[in-house]
Request: fold
Amino acid sequence: MDLSSASSTSYFSTPHQSGIFLDVSSDLAELMNVTIGIIRRDLGTDFELLPYTRKINASSFYSFKTEVCEVFSEGVFMTIASEKSSTEYSIMPIMEALHMPYITFSGQDLQADEWNYKLRMTPSYAAALAALEVYYNWQHVFYLYSDEAGLARFEQLAEIRQPNQQPIEIDLRYLNPSLADSYDVLRYLDRKYVRCMANKTEMVIILDLPSDDLTQTVLDQLADLGMIRENYHIVPATLAITNLNLQRLHVGGATVTGFKLFGLNSSDVYKELALDSLELVTRALKNIPEKRELFKGYYRTGVMYNGDIIGISCYTRDNPLGIGSNLMDSLKKTRFTGRTGKVKFDDQGYRTDYELDIYQQTPSKTLSQVAKWSTISGLHENVDMRPPKDAELPETGFFNETFIVTTVLVQPYAMEKADKSGPGDEKYEGYAIDLVARLAKTVGFNYVIKPVKDHGNLQADGNWSGMIGELIAKRADLAVADLTITSERERVVEFSAPFMNLGISIMIKKPEKQKPSVYSFMEPLSGSVWMCIALSFTGVTLVIYVISRISPNEWKVEEQPNGDESVENQFTLQNSAWFAAGALMCQGSEHSPYAPSNRVVGSAWWLFTLIIISSYTANLAAFLTVENIFMPVKNVQDLAQKWPDIKYGTLNSGTTRGFFENSNDPLFQEMWKNMASQPEEFLLPDAASGIDKVQNSKGQFAFLFESTTNEFANQRKPCNTMKVGENLDSKNYGIAMQRGHKLRHQVTLAILKMLESGELTKLEQTWWYDKGQCTNDEGKSAMKAALSLSNVAGVFYILIGGLLIAMFCALLEFVVKSVQDAKRFKKSFREAMKSKARLSIAGESDDSPSIGLHSVARAPLGGRACLCLLQAPSCNCGD
Reply:
């Protein structure tokens, strides 16, 4: 119940003020109010119970404790809690410390607690489950639970087992109370069904869930998944098996066994337990010896005192309720036959000496009471509850009988051969045809293939079409094709163990390979890394420049031609950048640092460039040779988000359409809404139409259908489709037979043998891949091919760009120098350009002495510098 607004009712009396605090739902409290009138008459004049109602705020432990203690201070000395009470763990320590009895009829009671002032009205059924385990000689059990109580009962079940009992394998599985993961867990169990069939053991599933509603939901999910076949034995762990709707399990052929409290006439177990709880209190108060004398010291003028304190105080733990032990003893000693059978408790406060009726439903019998179990005498059956043993397969098989096998001509399961001249069954080939041949050889029977138009659908008039209709009308014995096992079909025919697992998958057109980017050589490093390298280059350049200006070791004294001396630093800003660039390109530089600080910077930069270049080179080959494929859709979530840019559709009939149409998942509901908006375009009549639409859609359409057909189509020409993402669901193909057919067990065992030997896997490999028309040689050859110009074109572009930039810079230098020379030698810009051009082309300067090279040659001679104009008529730099 919602604790923040839980309605809790307390009852107390005058003149002898006694009290019962009821933590129950509002509808149950109303029923108990009616019952109070009867109890008043039973108690006589010693006690008078009057209803008192109060809302308890349980949003926090502090507020809950405060309000509960206020109720206790008014004379309440006993608590009865409902099955939905979530306050037990908060209130129980208070009750224990104050010696106040606590009666619970919670179905979630944990058997591991050791409270001295707690009575459990709900009988435990762990011992009854253990009795069923021994009776049926179960070898493997799947135990599903969703709360701590279920786990505690599982542990109790393990403790009850005797050391000399036959070992049993129990697979414990947790179900989220929201049942968000229930389908995945149940599919896991269904895959284990094959092993149980191979070992000729029952598939036992115990559902130990906290409520009948939750149990009913899981039972319906079992039916949805077709997990109600013969050999399934389902045990709902509840005390009212008759409240569950088991019709779908009955038509499927599963066996269901469960419990019902002996003598229980109402469908509401907890209502009956609540009323028995009130009767227990009534009888216990009446049975207390010398109750007038006992209660006399606690009531003064109609007010209850515990010592000198009015009511019972939660805050004085050293002053518990003095009559608490007397009340608890009287409750434990009270015995009566109530609405839930015999009510009796042991010294620990557990129900004892009770009986459970055992009910069972089988394929041939509706739910009925078949046995009793009691804590005293154990299990006593009215009829034999064990399933009948199947007759063993005769060694000679069925060689004298010919069976009709119906199928549907669908690739690659059954197809007409190109050469149709063969007699009878030799005209057909395919996976299903080969499977029938292997079954006939293993089991030992003759057969005739009879194709029909469709798999089998329920018509408006209630009749079945296709293969299912042939089986029902007994015009065929077996149906072997891509036939999905469903609960609807299970009701009218029997299925073998699954021979193939599949699910709904997504088919899209293969995206075209992307042409390599011109700058694919940049892809080994991300854009952020390239940005960081550029920033690092800039930072190193600035640090070298600044350190060179600071460190005295980088300054050198240079002698000028005129005899003067000047102080120079080789690491100008340009030279610093050139040094960093040389190291980054692994080419070095003519400038070397002298200062230790600059050498540290240089060493760190060299190490950095070594690692970066090594990492870049290692990844470069992969990025230049591997051709990237852009996937427009990666999974079903991606597909749903890209509507309407990428449209999708499915089959207009069958289980695939039903999956979307009946799904409770918001994602699939939205997808169905989109597809149903234009059924003529998105709901296609058959798989071939969907595949054709995908191939001609230019990547703008995806088709949702069975994964097996998807994988087969992807191996057929023109080899331009592919499967993406995981399967949306899980289902199975099985061989359908007439109900009760003589071959049903032999066919299942033969399939299990072929599964174990890997024969079915080889058969699938043959028809899906070995006979496929698509290969991966093209992709392999692409990996070995030499790099094309498109792979490295960007490098050439950068080289050409660098050359053009260099030519532009040289031309700019030419113009700038011409302007400077024109100003220096007072000539026109045109004359300066001509002189520069002559020097560039012929290597000679203009004859005019006024315009010449400003370049100088400097040579140290005897401590002097000789400056010679290269155009001067003479230059004497002799000794």
In short: Residues 7 and 55 are 5 Å apart (CA to CA).
